[in-house]
Amino acid sequence: MAGTTTKGFRYPTASDAPAIHTAFLNLASDVDSFLDTPQVTTSVIFEGSTADAFETTLTVVDPTADRTITLPNQTGTVALTTDIENFARVTGFMLGGM
Length: 98
Hints:
Distance between the termini: 65 Å
Low-confidence stretches: none
Helix content: 25-40%
Radius of gyration: 22 Å
Largest sheet: 2 strands, antiparallel
Order of helices and strands: EEHEEH
Shape: elongated
């Protein structure tokens, strides 16, 4: 007989497999909490389509105030400051303040 979490996940009961039951309830509680209030403290790691040793990590520094960074609702590539500096160097384009 299986039980159900608040989000509808099915799991074995304590009498079926006590250790798995406890571990699953702990995991399900964490997932439920994240789904209710998603928060990431310092970074998000993206695996990509191939599960290997290579990941992309998006990290933030320790903020000194609330900050908002908005990604546009468009398809494209996010340019890094090094990309802009390299573009300016190659094309001779003058960038103010850089």
